[in-house]
Amino acid sequence: MRKIIVCLLLLVYFITVKAQDKIITTKHDTISCKIITISTSCIFYEQTEADKVTGKSISIDEVEGYTRQPKTLANNQYYADNYGYISKRMHPRKHFWTFNLALGNSYMHELFENLEVAEIDDYYLQLKQGIHLNANAHYLLSDYIGLGLQYSFLNTRLSTSILQELESTYPVYVSANVNVRQYINFVGPSVLFQQYLGQKHKLKLTENLATGFLAYRFEQQKTVDIPSNSYFYTNTDNALTTGKTIGATMGLTAEYFIRPNLSVGVGGSFLYGKLTKVTWEYKNSNGDSEEETHEEMDEPLNLSRFDYSVVLRFHF
Questions:
Q1: How far is residue 250's CA from residue 266's CA, in Å, rounded to a whole number?
Q2: 3-state SS class at 4
Q3: Which of 14, 77, 81, 87 is the most buried (most CB within 10 A)?
Q4: Which of 42, 57, 89 is at the close of a domain?
Q5: Residue that terminates a domain, selected from 89, 120, 155
């Protein structure tokens, strides 16, 4: 009788073990378990040890494949093999690197807003809009997250003519030509998140967060032709302002794969940064010059902006 009971217990144990689901890892280990559900990023399963059920999960990137018993099927996307098991081969990760280029328009909504009206001429407000170029490269830790480096460049400029008072007694005005160039560079480490839309993985949303170094450069040249008796002489003023600070940026893009390794799309991002100290220098054609290093500004210069881009992304 005892032998019969032992045989029955062994038979029940053998059937239970054989009836378990199995997960095969990329290290070729086998996990015997009960698969609860499968998402796009993880497999959730249960294991029973000493009559204690423990819930666990494993990343899809760590899974080479798995088998499920027919009774555990949630839908019909799996197929039965010759042994009666339900099996599916996991698709290996296709890409390990992404490289992104984005070109578009920028708007600096708060540039010069904190300065007094007397300190800034209206034509400077043209510098609020310009063309930017953004680039980043990321190594994908999985299909859904990556680490990398981000770079951004913005150039705004203006060329105009203004009337400058030459003599207040009469008064006398002359025309002055003003050329201004503004450059903003950003570089820093970045985190990338991406989600595929649809079963064919043709559409993708990508988000990125970055913080880093923000460099500012403002160049101005003013040229004035001043009359003197029977001729004119030209006076040129040159001014340069530079500064450095810490900035941060976040962005979102929607992309469509036109080739397996190439996607195109549109995106938007926001960059934040405020400049509190500047270095400036002034020179003119008469030989006069001034310079001030790391001067504290009365009010910070807000360099924050919105970017709107056309995006081209390469996948390797």
A1: 15
A2: helix
A3: 87
A4: 89
A5: 89
